[in-house]
Amino acid sequence: MNEGVPSNPIDKNTKWNKIPQIAWFTLFILGSVDLISTAGETMIIPAIPDIINEFNITYSDSSWILSSYLIAGAVMTPIASKLSVIFGKKEILLTLMILYVIGTLLAGFAMNFSFLIVARVIQGLGLAMFPLAFSIIQTVFPKESLAIGQGIIIALFSSGSVIGLVVGGYVIDNFGWQTIFFVFIPISILTIILINKKINIPNEEILINENTENVDTLTNKKLSKLNLIDFKGTITLALLISSFLIVLSNLEEFDPQQFQLTIVFTIITLISLILFIFFSKRNKNPVISLGIFKHKILLFTNIILMISGLTTFMIYQMLPILIRNPYPVGFEGDAIKVVEIQFPFMIVLFLVSVCSGFLISKLGNIKPTLLGSTISLLGFFSIFFFHFSEFAIVVNLIIIGIGISFLQVGGFNIITASTPKKLTEISVGVTSLLFIIGMSIGPVISSLFLQNFKSSIYENNNYLPSSEAYNLIFLTAASISLIPTILILYIKKIK
User: What is the distance between the alpha carbons of residues 308 and 376, in angstroms, rounded to a whole number?
Assistant: First the structure.
C-alpha cells in the first residue's frame, strides 16, 4: 500500500449538485439506518440513573448498559461484512435491521438487569448496519464527491444521537424508561420496507453465478463460502473484548471474591489474545487482518478513530449521572435536563459533520483532521478545568463536538483514501470494528472512576460518586486526547 494519503480534492469543474439523484436517495435512506442504530444507543443515556436505581446495580454494572450493545455490534461488524459479500448487502442489511427491532422490543419488556443486557446484545447486532451502509455509499457516490457522502452519512449517524437523546429524555420523564424502546420500532419497520422496495444494491458475484448456475448449485456455493468467515477469530475477539472489560469493571474496592474473579478474567483475556493472534495468522480471511498494523497511516488513523469513540462514550456514560445526582455531587436535574445540556453537543456533531465533508472534498483530509484533533483536545482540557456549572459544560461540549466531527469525518476519509479500492470494504470494516471497540471501552473507564471514588452521600442503596470521580474522568479523557493530535502530526509528516 502507498504510504501517502491522497487528499482527493474535488475537481473545480465538479459540483456537488452533479451527484446522481439515485445516490442522494440511497444516501438518505441508508442514513436513516445509521440514525436508527445511533438513536438506539443514545435514547437510553438519560435513563442510566433510573436503571441503576430500579435494578439496584453498581455503577460498574451500569457500564454494560452501553457496552453490551457496543460489543455485540463490534463482533457482528466483521461477520456482517463477510456475509454481505456472500449473500448480498441488501439481504444482510435487512436481516440486521430485523434483529435490531427484535432486540429493541425485548428490551422494552425487561423485568431484570440480566434480561435487559441480553436484549441489548440482540439490539446491538444491528449496530453493524453502520459500516455496511457506509460501504454501500462508496459504490453509489462519485470518487471525487465521496467525502461529501461520507460527511453526510456520519452527520445522519450523529443526528440519531440528537433524536435519540431528545426523544429518550422526554419519554423517560413522562412515561418511564421502558417506553423508549417502543418509540423507534414503527420507524424501523418503515425503513425496512423502504429499503426492501426502493433500494437496489446488486451483488455482482451473485448476479454472475445466477446467470450460469441453477439455484441449488448457487445455494451450495453460498453455504460453502461461509468458510471464508473467521468464526474462531470472531469468537476469541468477543471473549477478548468482554473479558477485558469485565476486568476493568471489577477493579473496585478490594474484595477477596471479586479479586479472584478478576484474576480469572485476566487469564481469559490473555489466552483470548494469544488465540486471536494465532487464528488471525492462520486464516486467509481473518476478522482483523494483522497486515493493517504494518501500514503506518492506516494503523495510526485507526487508533485516532478508536480513541475518539472511547473519549466520547466516557462522557456519555458519566454525564447523566453527574446531571441527575443531588447537590453537592450533581446538578439535581432530571432526564429533560440531561437532554438540555447534551442537545447542543449533538446538534454540533450533526452540522459540523456535514460541513467537514464539503471542506475535506476541497482541502484534503489531513488539515481538517488535524484541526479536529486540536479542537477536541482543547475542549477536553477545558471541560476538565471548567465543569462546575451547567453553562460551562454546555460550552465545552460544543467545542468537543466541533473537534470530534472534523476528526471522525477526516479520519474515515484518510482510511478510504489510503486503501486500495479492492480492499476498501475490508479496511472500512476493520476501522468500524475498532471504532466500536473504543466506544465500548469508554463507559467502563468512566464507571471504574464512578465506582471507586465515592462521596459520603448515600442514596438508593449507593454511595454517590464524588467530585473527584468526575475530575478524574475529564482528566483521563483530556490526557488520552493528546494521542490523536500527536499521531495526525506524524501522518502529516510521512505523507
Answer: 9
> Residue 56 — left, alpha, or beta (φ > 0 → left; ψ -120 to 50 → alpha)?
left
How do 462-465 and 454-459 pair as beta strands?
antiparallel
Query: Phi, psi (5° rounding) for residue 454?
Result: -110, 155
pLDDT tens sequence across 316-350:
878 888 998 888 888 988 888 888 888 888 788 77
How is residue 328 annotated by DSSP?
T
Alpha carbon separation from 78 to 87, 184, 244, 373, 439 (Å, rounded): 14, 26, 20, 27, 16
| Amino acid sitting at position 344 | P
Q: Count other Cβ atoms within 10 Å, centred on residue 9.
A: 14
Residue with cell 429533560: 336
CA distances from 259 to 252, 265, 462 (A): 9, 10, 21
What is the separation of C-alpha 155 from the centre of its chain, rounded to a whole number of angstroms?
13
- CB contact at 8 A, 405 and 348: yes
Per DSSP, the residues of 157-226 read HHHHHHHHHHHHHHHHHHH-GGGHHHHTHHHHHHHHHHHHHH-----HHHHHHHHHS-HHHHHHHHHHGG
Distances (CA, A) of 229 to 88, 100, 139, 221: 15, 22, 23, 14
Side chain identity at residue 316, one-letter code: Y
Tens of pLDDT, residue by residue over 193-202, are 888 887 776 5
404-452, pLDDT tens digit by residue?
A: 989 988 888 888 888 776 666 667 777 877 887 888 788 888 888 988 8
Q: Which pairs from 244-250 meet CB under 8 Å and 24+ separation?
A: 244/269, 244/441, 245/63, 245/67, 245/71, 245/440, 245/441, 245/444, 248/441, 248/444, 248/445, 248/448, 249/60, 249/61, 249/63, 249/64, 249/444, 249/447, 249/448, 249/451, 250/60
Q: pLDDT tier at 252 (50, 70, 90 boundaries)?
A: low
Biggest CA-to-CA distance, the chain: 74
306 touches 480 (CB < 8 A): no
